[in-house]
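Justification of resources, computational component.

The compute hours requested in this renewal are based largely on the per-chain cost of generating structure records like the one below. Each record pairs the submitted sequence with a full structure-token output. That output is archived, and it is also reused by downstream analysis tasks.
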Amino acid sequence: MAGRFVAIGDSFTEGLGDWNPRFPNGCRGWADRVARQLAKQDPAWTYANLAIRSRRLDRIIDEQLEQALALRPTLVSFYAGGNDLLELSADVPALMERYEQAVVRIRESGAQALLFTGFDVALTPLVAPLRRRNWEFNDAVRLIAARHDCLLVDYWSFEEFSRPEYWGSDRLHMTALGHRQLARRVLEELGVPHTIMDEDDDDARLKAAPRGRLAPVRAVGRAVASEHAWMTTWVLPMFARRLAGVTLGDSLEPKWPVPIRPARGMKWNARRRARLSVPPGTFVDPADVESLRRSA
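The structure output for this chain reads:
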């Protein structure tokens, strides 16, 4: 049955790591893939994605939640809070109280809410407190999903995501392979048949690829070098941006602020999107959607 899928959140939902210059903001992602599969089941499905990288929970609520609900969705995917957990200090119970209020607002609108736990990414012991916060976040999301009859994609429990091939060099964002697999998991939760087959070829290729063995001393040396490169290339710059009050999403617009019809083809929609400017935080009245489409 056709409906309207609206995705809100941060880089996880925007699609970081699934790089594709033909798509808005240079990335595709699991949500775009899910929308395309929904449209294959029924071409009448429409889709909007308001997610912007680096957004914390409060900005997602302030800038995206009411905008999403104004589009009269039948399904809202909501992943938020991950960037809050990366703060030097984070009040997780207070964070989850605000998170639950947003979920209640989605459910009160009549839309189904699709929630996610966070994956337990293997990080250096130096940032072990972040993993403990993630566990606390996941426990709270599961309770909220049960309490409000939400769909839950329990990302934490998916063993295949322990494979390094699913993760980019920053260890926080999935590769295209990871986004494709997550799209499959989301579609399974929705009970939607799909034709996402290209990852099967990737799986076969990865299983067949030889895995070299390093001598113990070389392995340790390479691991230390890898940790140092990760800290200097990704972790320290991320915390420096936070201290400066700067985020990677400050100059970006939402990928799909006006509902599109994925059945027409995502690249066709992307060409039209390139002619439409809707700055983040701009409220798009549903009555203006058709005029915005015509002007694009």
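The CA atoms of residues 53 and 249 lie 5 Å apart. The first strand starts at residue 4 and ends at 9.
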